[in-house]
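Now read this:
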Amino acid sequence: MSIQSKILKNFNYKTNCAALFNHINIRPGNIVYPCCRFKRPVASYTPDILNSAIYNDLRNKANTKQLPECSKCFHEESLGKQSFRNKWNKHYNTDNIDLKYLLIGLNNICSLTCHGCGPEWSSSWFKKLNPNTTIKKGYKHTDITNIPDSIEFIEFQGGEPFETSTHRKLLELHANPSICTVQYVTNCMHSLTDKDYDIFNKFKQIKFWLSIDGYKNTNNKVRSGSVWEIVEKNALNISSNYDCQVETTLHKNNVLDITNLEKWIKKHNLVWNITPLTRPRNLDCAYMSDLGSIIDIISKLDYKHKDTLIAHCSTQSTATNWINY
């Protein structure tokens, strides 16, 4: 029996991750990461990447120890939070190697410069950091000419998917869209078009993660280029038509006003998920000087996972190993 077959038969749920069997994250420039949290690229994209020697080696190592590149998930698990790794292992089969979930950044084209982001995901950040360089040098694209029939989930991340039409062209490549769920991460600065609705109707389900980091002026400040009136209109339109949740990245520049966003979330009966920003460290709430006040603000939120946010804010002395990798 081969080493790979042994791993498939005796999957170690304590250290391994089903993402290594079913999932890839392709970022602008055709660079492959095992998932959006893995801390380094592993290869350039090829249709059979999951069966490569690189992936075989990752699966072998992950079956015997915690991969340091996966440290964010293990950190969350130590705080009592369900990590992406936990979710992968709950929902995906490891009896075989078969690409089911494609997370893709089609390009880095985005008109926003959000706090905590950078030029890898935003061409506007490239322009801000390189004001004397032509913006075209800051553009990165992913070239995919086919969608494997096995794909059951496609997630579009940034840049901003709706700033170009590339996502529509890619979806039209799926030979059997009725088996596939599509999820978008969007900054809500772009309205859906009739073309979008027509394409969406062919797929099993359409989901949205709405990236909103504050209420009104706070969102405009920490997601520079945002216009709250446009964001709110598009967010509410999407939520009235599709399964969605608001995804908020919590950091030192929005935490003091987070209760106003909470009121807006509750007013419109929206699902809310908050993730603490960990990089760059100077934006991490856990390293704010008045940490007691920050924890007090978080503790008063009507948010079911606030205990994990409070736990994160108590990790200044223990976070070094996982965050610095």
